[in-house]
Amino acid sequence: MSTEVSPNASGQSVHTKGTTPAAPEKMSRESVTIISTLLVATFVVILNETIMNVALQRLMVDLQVDAPTVQWLSTGFMLTMAVVIPTTGFILQSLSTRAVFMLAMGLFAGGTALAAVAPGFELLLLARIIQAGGTAIMLPLLMTTILTLVPLARRGAVMGNVSIAISVAPAMGPTVSGLILEHFTWRFMFVFVLPVALAALAIGAKYLTNIGQAEKTRLDFLSVILTVPAFGGLVYGLSQIGGGHGGQAGPGTTAIAALVVGVASLAVFVLRQVRLQKAEAPLLDLRAFNFRMFTVSVLLMVVAMMALFGGVILLPLYLQEVRGLGSLETGLALLPGGLAMGLLGPVIGRLFDKVGPLPLTVSGSVLMVLSLWQFSMLDAGTAVAWIVTLHVGLSFGLALLFTPAFTTGLNPLPPHLYSHGSAIMSTTQQVAGAAGTALLVSIFAVVSAASGLVAGMSAAFLTATVISLAAVVLSAMMRKTPGAGPAHAAH
């Protein structure tokens, strides 16, 4: 017997009629409104994540700070995300859906408003940290809500829409900021985002209903404290290795120390969670890894995110440093790929519901390997049209990976692990993105110093190609999973 869960007017979960096989195809209007609101909000907060990268040069001049200092506007954001995301499993279980949404969008809108009027670097950094706190909560909230409300037969299609938020938004960030900086001051990057954030907050406040019921769970403060050196140390160490430091090609002692502390703290954090699982009170429930497809999907996401972030960082470097394009031209060159990835997301989601993950992920991983291999052959005279074509090919490959990986990984989890599974996926994305950026930018820096920019770029993309071969192996292991969601687990 299967039932569909939908919120009633008072916000409580109710079981609606659904004993016939056709029921899983239906979604209530409230469910559609909730998911649409969360999708728009997630798109806005993720767009904001990459909007800053193009503006760093301008900010150095306006705020009179040096390159390592201004880099903290990106590093601080990443660190906050890395520390907050592991706690979202607990937050989503302890607070109502409305409360979590209002907290996330309230933090984001408040941080955006503060950034728009920040008189100096210190307040701007604080504003970015506040923004990051809200951003960190949104994606796990969206994924957990989809798992709770969407029947299994339609999950692929709805998860395909999530790929619009996680792929188009970062791709559009540099283009949007390039357009803004061409005509306005850097403050308008926040001025333009603020009304959208406030509108999403207002719509959510009016229409969002609570899904399920908050549980009384105990917060383990030691686990929360451990997330700072564990995930913060890893992301900071990786970003410092990749971000360069005073012109050195190799990793500095600070980066190495941060990584050592990060790995050691992560080991303690994992042991602590395993112990707390026996008392049913972990901050991040690692029992999601008992499900084989969840583990394979997480590993596939790690490889795909390393390739995506490496490409997002390396291609602008190539276009600006080697080809001499401006920031706006660079953003426009990368836009078709980002749009292709997002627009294909829902189509791939519907295909996933019909054929399962295997044909999609194998095709996507092979396309990703071929695109990265071709990128490694770029030289100073390669036509920009060919670079745009390759980027669209890479984006298509990643689109074929993301939706199946998200859906196949999260489908088999029982409802009490939804929020934890979403938090684990989001955390590994952050760490993988930082690791991919660090590794590829470090290789680019070392080889460029010895043999020139084109050789550095080639070596970095060749490394990305070798890493992405792991995705082909993992893709071949993907299998369609029976769900444990509402459509299957309601008794």
Report on this structure:
With 491 residues, this protein is an all-alpha fold. The chain contains 18 helices and two strands. The chain has a two-stranded antiparallel sheet. β1 and β2 form a beta hairpin. It is globular. The protein starts with a strand and ends with a helix.
Low-confidence stretches: 1-24, 244-249, 484-491
C-alpha Rg (nearest Å): 22 Å
Described by strand count, sense and barrel closure, the largest sheet is: 2 strands, antiparallel
How many helices? The count is 18
Category from helices, strands and their pairing: mainly alpha
| Percentage of residues in DSSP E strands | under 5%
Strand order of the largest sheet: 1-2
Strand count: 2
* Overall morphology: globular
Average pLDDT confidence is 83
Helix content: over 70%
Run of helices and strands = EEHHHHHHHHHHHHHHHHHH
Kindly report how far apart the N and C termini lie.
Answer: 7 Å
